[in-house]
Design goal:
mainly alpha
Length: about 260
């Protein structure tokens, strides 16, 4: 099922529940002047619940958005570091230069064409990717510099390999959902309570009140769906893609 279809179903379900509850509570026609008064304390409690839940929703949205931004930055840093390793290898003799670039290309190709799908499905990176990056590290680290130029370039290249490894580890940590289950329990439970408090305000079947209740319920459903969609930075509808690798390594057969 498409995630957009799931969103529509979720929003429609929230609206149907509100309409059903209102109709069940008010089966008889409303007689003008017979409206029950809502106690002031209920209005106050409803307002406070709405404010607290809005703050919680805002914090949750900010949290998942920040996690997605961090995942995007880590991916770009990983791709950029490897691109610089490949470029800086120009100072080496042709045989070793080709070896370093082959190591980089093999790692990038594997990440984009193989590991990415595994990461989206399983929420983790692979051991094979670790081995390919480790091979690049070992090839550079175990070669003794043969000239002053190589000596000067050695540490910067090793730093870039280290940055790529660090970014890869961060990508692995963010590969799955980032929000704990207890937070989701609070978000869903808060949504039920917040929408349920509408009925404490004696909502009737007037078009104006029903429209407002439906819009409010649909908005809550949409915000929860958005949080869920952003919760996993590397999958679902709005996700981090392999575009940095594809942009920085255009000569490789990536994404095929």
């Amino acid at each position: 099922m498409s995630e957009w279809v799931a969103l529509i179903i979720a929003m429609a379900s929230a609206c149907v529940v509100v309409v059903a509850v209102v109709l069940l509570r008010r089966r008889r026609p409303i007689v003008e002047g017979s409206t029950d008064e809502t106690p002031d304390v209920i209005e106050y409690i409803t307002m406070m619940i709405g404010v607290v839940y809005a703050i919680v929703l805002g914090l949750a949205i900010a949290g998942v958005w920040e996690a997605r931004g961090a995942a995007q930055d880590d991916l770009f840093r990983e791709a950029q570091s490897l691109r610089e390793v490949s470029d800086r290898a120009v100072i080496y003799p042709a045989e070793f230069r080709d070896q370093v670039r082959a190591d980089v290309d093999a790692y990038v190709t594997y990440v984009v064409n193989t590991e990415w799908a595994y990461m989206k499905e399983n929420g983790a990176i692979t051991e094979k990717g670790d081995q390919l990056l480790r091979k690049l590290h070992d090839d550079v680290a175990t070669r003794s510099p043969a000239s002053d130029l190589e000596s000067q370039a050695y540490q910067p290249i090793m730093d870039r390999v280290g940055q790529a490894s660090e970014a890869r580890n961060s990508r692995g940590q963010n590969a799955g959902p980032t929000m704990p289950g207890v937070v989701w329990f609070g978000l869903i439970g808060g949504a039920v309570v917040t929408v349920g408090m509408l009925f404490a305000l004696q909502i009737r079947r007037t078009p104006r009140e029903l429209i407002l209740a439906l819009c409010f319920s649909a908005l809550i459903a949409f915000l929860l769906f958005m949080i869920w969609d952003f919760d996993n930075p590397f999958s679902r509808t709005v996700s981090v893609t392999t575009q940095p690798f594809e942009d920085l390594f255009p000569s490789l057969n990536l994404g095929g």
